[in-house]
Amino acid sequence: MKKWSMKPEIYSGFASLERLQQFEKENLCFVCDPYLAESDSLKRILGYVKRTNTIEIYSDIIPDPPIETVVDGIEKMTKHKPTVVIAVGGGSAIDTAKAMLFFYKRTTGNKVKRFVAIPTTSGTGSEVTSASVITDTQNKIKYPIFHEAIIPHEAILDASLVMSSPPSVTAFSGLDVLTHAFESLASVNRTNYTNALAEKATELVFQFLPTCVNQGMELDARIQMHEASTLAGLAFDAAGLGVCHAIAHQVGANFKVPHGLANSMLLPYVIQANSKDKETRKNYARISRKLGICPPSLPDHLAVSNLAQAVQQLAIECKAPIKLNSFGIQEEAALSAEDVIANNALNDTTFKTNPIQFSAEEIKEIYRNIIK
């Protein structure tokens, strides 16, 4: 049995921040990174908050949030006792807030009235998902948490908050959107509902990501990518992810490669590997034809090959490295980590919904493609 439900409430457009005016006499906890805490964007957001509320800002967020940051955040929450949590930022800020809320309730029994997510990047889709990824820096493992309790009550999508995102962040985040879409399209739990969301997200990424990277102030392109991120988030939250994320989590934990970049390096090879499954191959081929990547008459296996090439070409067009050595990771270091990466990928929650349950050796084969 497969489940389909739509959460959270989504508010989009330039008036969407007015949703913050609903709060009166509440203890608000804003979760963001140090840069955003000092930015005009946060000042603008706070301008919508009524003065009857008390405000606490937790801004010790860092990329690939470690367990220690979550623990520190829970301590701050225990002291402040917020009634509303508002996460502002990219996936790291929203994921941290989710983990804080999850363990805050478990350790104290307290819960908040409202959890609001305001994304400032177009990538993780975390504003609409039940997922959070936390890093064990000591053991170099990323732990995905999936629980309905951490889905935000509201997602506020204001694309103007993304306009200042630099080209590299825009590229890596946007390629993460593409990976979310493709993994949900291949997932064993995919449905017509999730396929519709993922296909639209894929179409938008191919059409608008290069413009966002090269012309960052192009508002319409930013709006389209912001919505693509949310669409892909809704798709994978219902369908699940796959081996691309399972490996990318380990690459990020071991080498501090940005998550979206690790995904984009792996995705062309994952598409080829997953296409050994007949139904997945048909699905990929259909998308390849729908996007106009190949002629309608091309056989499925060639349509899939064209699709994988198009994904890699998109990364190149967005100036994203396609190999680890281009990101400064030496071949020897990359090879020495392959056993750990493969074994941890096998145990990664996201691997469970992949259409093929690869062996450790097969995962290594996929991983070796991105070394140099």
Q: What is the CATH class designation of the largest domain? A: Mainly Alpha
Task: Please state roughly what percent of the residues sit in beta strands, choosing from under 5%, 5-15%, 15-25%, 25-35%, 35-45% or over 45%.
Answer: 5-15%
| Sheet with most strands | 6 strands, parallel
As a whole number of angstroms, the C-alpha radius of gyration is 20 Å
Number of strands: 8
Tell me the name of the CATH homologous superfamily of the largest domain: Dehydroquinate synthase-like - alpha domain
Q: How many distinct folded domains?
A: 2
The termini sit apart by: 42 Å
Please report the number of helical segments: 14
CATH topology of the largest domain: Dehydroquinate synthase-like, alpha domain
**Backbone structural class:** alpha/beta
What's the shape? globular
> What strand order characterises the main sheet?
1-8-5-4-2-3
SSE layout:
Layout lengths: L8 E4 L14 E5 L2 H4 L2 H7 L7 E5 L8 H14 L3 E6 L1 H18 L5 E6 L11 E6 L4 E6 L7 E4 L9 H20 L5 H23 L4 H21 L3 H13 L3 H16 L3 H13 L9 H18 L13 H6 L1 H9 L13 H9 L4
Parallel strand pairs: 1-8, 2-3, 2-4, 4-5, 5-8
Antiparallel strand pairs: 6-7
Helix pairs in contact: 3-4, 5-6, 5-7, 5-9, 6-7, 8-9, 8-13, 9-11, 10-11, 13-14
Keywords: Oxidoreductase
GO molecular function, one term: alcohol dehydrogenase (NAD+) activity
InterPro entries: ADH_Fe/GldA, ADH_Fe_C, ADH_Fe_CS, Alcohol_dehydrogenase_Fe
